[in-house]
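Dear colleague,

As promised, here are the two records you asked about, laid out in our usual form so they can be pasted straight into your sheet.

NAME FIELD: protein one
SEQUENCE, THEN STRUCTURE:
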Amino acid sequence: IYLNFSFSSTNVTLAQTQAGTSSTAQTITLSNYSNNPVTVTTGPYTSGGADFSYGTNCGTVAAGGTCTITVNSTPPSIGTFSGVLPVAVYDLAIFSGALTQNISVSVTGY
């Protein structure tokens, strides 16, 4: 099984954010180096107490194409919170399953 893709980051630390307010979003780029289009699904987040959210324009990514995943968080209180966003990548032309990459995200509330 050979899927050739990469993420610009798999470990995101969001800027320190006032508790109860939304952090500045950070963007992760997925690059598809395969000869086939891939289908990308995201979520759901698992988190340790903070409200993490994400947005994506991925869906189907053409061969040689890119897409973005934007993550942010609202820390509920002072302290550091972390979450994991699973991203599954499918190339149905060569493999009926998916390869999943977990994106670790953390935010510190002040």
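NAME FIELD: protein two
SEQUENCE, THEN STRUCTURE:
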Amino acid sequence: AGRAAFVAELNDLGRALQGATANSLADEVINSAGWDLLSTSLGLASKPLLTVYATEGLAAENRALSEAVRRQSGSRVQAIEIESDHSFADRRIALAVSVVRWLQALDTAKP
């Protein structure tokens, strides 16, 4: 168990992330205690923001970030929760459609 089991779970990358290995991802997660995306909400509020997250992933954390950004004045955040696992393995078309629709809406919102 422990780190070896965690690394084994991450070892399904299929070379999807250039330069990333199961070990390097494990190191990032294990050493992530200082990560605090909520503290970035003010900066994120000045940009259009789309958060798409899976119910089987870090949904609570993503919801909290979306709400923190939404509370900032002038924010333009859209949060989409998709019922799926963290890789959206069974909902990749829904994921792609969500992103494309959001991008299209940005394009039509330009002055």
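A couple of things worth noting about protein two: The longest strand covers residues 76-85. The beta strands are 48-56, 76-85.

Best,
R.
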